Amino acid sequence: LAKEQGGGHVEVYAAHMHAQVVERLELQTELRQALADRAFVLEYQPVVSLETSQVTAVEALVRWRRGDGVLVPPEEFIGPAEDSGLIVPLGQWILREACQKVAVWRATTGLDIGLSVNVSARQVLSQGFVQSVEEVLAESGLAAEALTVEVDEEILLENPVVAAERLTRLRGLGVRLAVDDFGMGHASLSHLRRLRVDAIKIDPSFVRELDSDDTVTLLTRTIIRLGQDLGVQVVAEGIEHPWQLRRLKEMGCAYGQGFLVGRPMDAAGVEALVGGEANATVR
Ligand code: C2E
Ligand code: MG
Ligand code: MG
Ligand code: MG
């Protein structure tokens, strides 16, 4: 009897696993179709100088506009897109779309607005990545110095030699490199030793707990100091409350992002923001 029951459990479990696999495959098919249908859209979140409140750059953030009109957040599809390899053509589209837009905004406003684009490890490790960035810059006319590529700390875990080589070549083009979600990885400091970067982005989990936790405050101050000592830009992410902004400024953090200082917005929103020129700045 026990054996029968056990077998039953295995079956239920297997059926559950099967359903998950099918769901994942269906999602990957939908994503492939979405890319063909041009159903991905970009939003842009301002990066501001905490000193002057002026916009220095925008970070491109991808969304999937599903058939029913719902905007699906990246957390729900970037993973599957990475697993299926679709992240390579999707990432290529994101880069091209964002570079074209920002190149136009820079030309029409005369403002030195930077662009940050997130890239996945899988993308960086794919064949011809550096060359494809070079091509997009040439096509769009965006200055390499205006582009920052954001990578997660984990990028150096899987294939450290190739990843570091690619990213170093990318920097050789003049493109800036940022470490996203800094402080959350297993080896934040050793990554900085392996790879020259231009910016570090403090993870929102630090900003959230600035008030309540002395250790978090100490660590945040240390990251900011580290950035200053290394000559690296420090961007605090996830600023939602005026007290967080105040604390970060006091600690000498130069740049920030968050719902308080600017929500992700569509391209028309950015045009209204920088076209009004009141808010943006020439660096
Ligand atoms: P990330 O690069 O760290 O981007 C910041 C995320 O925090 C964005 O979520 C943004 O909307 C959100 N955020 C900004 N300010 C606040 C705030 O004040 N409070 C809170 N609670 N959240 C804030 P989003 O757009 O859902 O993106 C999530 C992640 O998905 C990104 O994290 C990035 O890792 C990934 N992602 C987004 N776009 C792309 C892309 O084009 N390519 C790749 N490979 N990954 C992307
Ligand atoms: Mg990012
Ligand atoms: Mg990230
Ligand atoms: Mg982040």
TrEMBL record:
The question of whether Lipid biosynthesis is a record keyword is answered with no
| Superkingdom of origin | Bacteria
Q: Which UniProt keywords apply?
A: Membrane, Transmembrane, Transmembrane helix
Residue limits of the EAL domain? Answer: 24-278
Q: What is this protein called?
A: Diguanylate cyclase
| Residue range from the parent sequence | 622 to 904 of 904
